[in-house]
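ok so for the tutorial part 2 we go from a plain amino acid sequence to predicted structure tokens. step 1 is just haveing the sequence, like this:
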Amino acid sequence: MADYVQALKNDLVEQFKGKPHIEALMEVIGEQLQEVAVFYEQLRTERNVYTSVGKQLDGVGDIAVMTRKEAGQLAGNPIPFDVLDDETYRLYLMYKIMKNNCDCTYPFILKAFRMFWELPLYYSEDPEQPATMIFDTGIMPGTVDTDPLFRVPLLRAAGVTLKMYIRTETTLPFRETYIGGDFCGSIMNTRLPDIDFERAYREELFAAGAGHGSLEITMLPELAGPNEMKSELSVGIHTNSITQTTIPETG
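step 2 — the prediction. this is what the tokens look like for a chain of 251 residues:
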């Protein structure tokens, strides 16, 4: 930003430069101009839906015609917030701005989503689902925050269905359960059906020590799928009984 005090002094003609009274007048006028410039810069940069906070954001709400209370009512009934924070209010203001200007065509809706969703979003149509707009995030890491897509109401034309597919994937860690000690009253192990994931899982249950009262294992039917499943049960000494139940497979 320009230094108006120095700019005014530089614009003086030579015969007035260095004169104490003239330069004092330039400093007074320059400081006033500087304050006006700062005000208009704040108005330009902080009076928009992306950067404004507090009272300034409420002013954006006045322009978009949505108060904090109205945004809270959209979020749920009863309102799930004691005080609607700026970031949540900002999302609902974006929705209201979209609603005020939306022509409900898919290019506009995609453009509107970009206001609060930075990651890719793909549009498609299905002949078997007429009058349906389908948006898909694609597969994303499980660490991605998808809350904005759930919290902001979706825009659509009357009579048109809008579907949103939000997909994330997370790598499951290797799991082991160890039961130890001098005495275990009983152990029950239930193995659920194999699920058709393109992953290899391994589950191990170790029961070590002396004096196990009983072990009960329930085997559920397996589901078809190219999975590599391995289950191991290691039992220590002095086990009184082991019961295994297999439930019949269903067609």
